[in-house]
Design goal:
It is a single chain. The protein is α+β, with helices and mostly antiparallel strands. It has two domains: 15-156, no CATH class; 187-293, OmpA-like domain (60s Ribosomal Protein L30, Chain: A), CATH 3.30.1330.60. The protein is built from ten helices and six strands. It has helices at residues 15-18, 28-32, 40-58, 62-76, 93-111, 114-117, 119-138, 142-156, 200-216, 233-255; strands spanning 19-21, 25-26, 187-190, 220-225, 262-266, 287-293. It has a four-stranded mixed β-sheet with strand order 3-6-4-5, with helices on both faces. Strands 1-2 form a two-stranded antiparallel ribbon. The protein is globular and about 70 Å long. The chain starts with 14 loop residues before the first helix and ends with a strand.
Length: 294
């Protein structure tokens, strides 16, 4: 029975394989040095995802680095991983239709045997699709978005699939497994200026996070602190750490999330939601982002 590319990957559960420590970044060498599987498509996919993880780790994007290295580990272990679902990223409305159509085309090609006929190109197309959707969610680096989109399209046109063969008697269709509940879009908690205290609106978001955690049971929860650009950059990095800690501790105390489950990140005034220049008091940048991963 041919396995279909319809679900999101089950991420590698051994956290020690993927992370040396929250502050130390992603252990890309361990997965990169794993013996590639015999399947040429999965072997190529392992390398593509390791390369993406290395690139994101260099940009201090720990959540996406872990996501890509997890998919690399699954491929290295010989497990089938598919392109990310559109609903698992917080995308601008203008990009949803194109990414949805691209994923549909890619999944159709994989299901028709592109992974066997042109494995290297199929792996490249899938990895670049995941790169494209990840950069589109960040939506602050147009050149990177276009680079991933272009590489996806270049690889996709090279895909070849097996010609359809009319069977004398169609084989019975296997019972489809129920699709896993999709991960919710990232949650955002906003903070008052120069404060790491969670206000009433923030507590309402905390309750939503706790409820969602009980439903989808993510293996990892990334809690990333941010600040605006007002004040000293080093001070802001510390403030973002305090904000991430405040949210993490509240989730553990009130929602039953575990310390092993939560990965904290501090970005300070880097990666603003609203580019504002230095020394600006911008409410949309004073935030903590909480993202679930399988």
């Amino acid at each position: 029975m041919k396995m279909k590319y319809i679900t999101t990957p089950v991420l590698v559960t051994a956290a020690a394989l993927l992370l040396t420590a929250c502050s130390a970044g992603v252990d890309t060498k361990t997965v990169g040095m794993m013996a590639p599987p015999a399947d040429p498509f999965l072997a190529a996919l392992q390398k593509e995802y390791v390369d993406l993880a290395v690139a994101e780790d260099k940009e201090d994007d720990g959540a996406d680095a872990v996501y890509f290295i997890s998919k690399a580990g699954e491929a290295a272990a010989g497990k089938l991983v598919g392109p990310q679902m559109v609903g698992e990223r917080m995308l601008p409305a203008s990009a949803v239709d194109e990414l949805t159509a691209a994923r549909k085309d890619l999944v159709r090609a994989l299901n028709r045997g592109a992974d066997k006929e042109t494995p290297a190109d199929a792996a490249r197309a899938q990895a670049m699709y995941d790169c494209w959707i990840q950069e589109q969610e960040e939506n602050n680096q147009p050149k990177d978005i276009e680079a991933c989109r272009t590489e996806y399209k270049k690889a996709f046109v090279l895909l070849k699939t097996k010609p359809k063969v009319m069977a004398a008697k169609p084989a019975p269709k296997p019972m489809a497994k129920p699709a896993p509940m999709p991960m919710p879009k990232p949650f955002t908690i906003y903070f008052d200026s120069d404060s790491a205290d969670i206000n009433d609106k923030g507590m309402m978001v905390i309750k939503d996070i706790i409820a969602a955690n009980g439903k989808v049971k993510p293996s990892k929860v990334f809690v990333a602190g941010h600040t605006d650009t007002k004040g000293d950059a080093d001070y802001n990095k510390g403030l973002s750490r305090h904000r991430a800690a405040a949210v993490s501790n509240t989730l553990m105390e009130q929602g039953g999330l575990t310390r092993k489950q939560i990965i904290r990140q501090r970005h300070g005034e880097a990666n603003p939601a609203v580019p504002s220049g230095d020394g600006k008091n911008e409410a949309m940048n004073r935030r903590v982002i909480v993202k679930f991963m399988r």
